[in-house]
Design brief:
This protein has helices at residues 3-9, 17-30, 108-124, 180-188, 193-203; strands at 36-39, 56-62, 66-72, 88-99, 133-135, 149-156, 163-165, 168-179. It contains five helices and eight strands. The longest helix has 17 residues, at 108-124.
């Protein structure tokens, strides 16, 4: 796209090329499915001095038995001439999670979790890459539950593939819940992160986060 073409399209105030790029990846996966969408409070967004760095979340229902959440806000979403032609679109990734839920509303706790991860990245300037992991200070990642999943591991989304956009590369970083035992193993030897992911895939090829999981995978 030339600069002149960009400026012509940008005359449409509703044009959101980065948002469209993210949706195009999920359209490849889910066709014309109309996802459940959860928009954050406009007045609480960071651009207005608030603490909401994610503009919204879409939740798609997979035929493989889970809800697939994707964020909108870690990459450049709207018309921004200064962002054209970068190597990466803002942080270079949107976040995803997969939950074995029948109803999208049952994913709200995970949406809150992803929102907190976005806030952490923007406020600390510390981004995630595949193989990174983080503890929830020993507490269940679903607040108020007795889940054994007390930490998260970042991996490449098992289905949503990265895309090159006018603002640069956008990948999809999936977060999967892990047990404290698994977290301590990774803390002692971070090089085992991808080995852990591969071990989990033997039982759980899509790396669905099941808060009722009891088994730990020690590699």
């Amino acid at each position: 796209m030339t600069l002149e073409e960009f400026r012509e399209k940008a005359k449409d105030e509703e044009w959101a090329p980065g948002w469209d790029a993210v949706e195009s990846v999920f359209k490849e996966l889910y066709g014309e499915q109309d996802p459940a969408h959860y928009a954050t409070d406009f007045t609480k967004r960071a651009m207005f001095g608030g603490t909401e760095y994610i503009d919204g979340y879409s939740v798609y229902k997979s035929a493989n038995g889970y809800q697939h959440i994707v964020t909108f806000g870690m990459t450049e979403l709207y018309a921004d001439e200064e962002s054209l032609g970068g190597d990466y679109s803002r942080w270079g990734y949107e976040m995803t999670m997969k939950l074995p839920c029948e109803n999208a509303n049952d994913c709200l706790w995970a949406i809150d979790l992803l929102g907190n991860l976005g806030r952490y990245t923007y406020s600390k300037g510390s981004w995630f890459e595949p193989g990174h992991f983080m503890s929830n200070m020993g507490q269940p990642i679903k607040s108020g539950s007795d889940s054994l999943l007390t930490a998260i591991l970042a991996v490449e989304d098992t289905e949503a593939k990265g895309i090159d956009t006018i603002y640069g590369r956008v990948d999809f970083l999936q977060f999967v819940g892990i047990t404290n035992e698994e977290y301590e193993m990774l803390k002692a030897d971070p090089s085992k992160a991808m080995l852990l992911a591969e071990a989990m895939k033997k039982d759980n090829p899509f790396l669905i986060t099941d808060i009722n999981r009891k088994k730990s995978y020690i590699v």
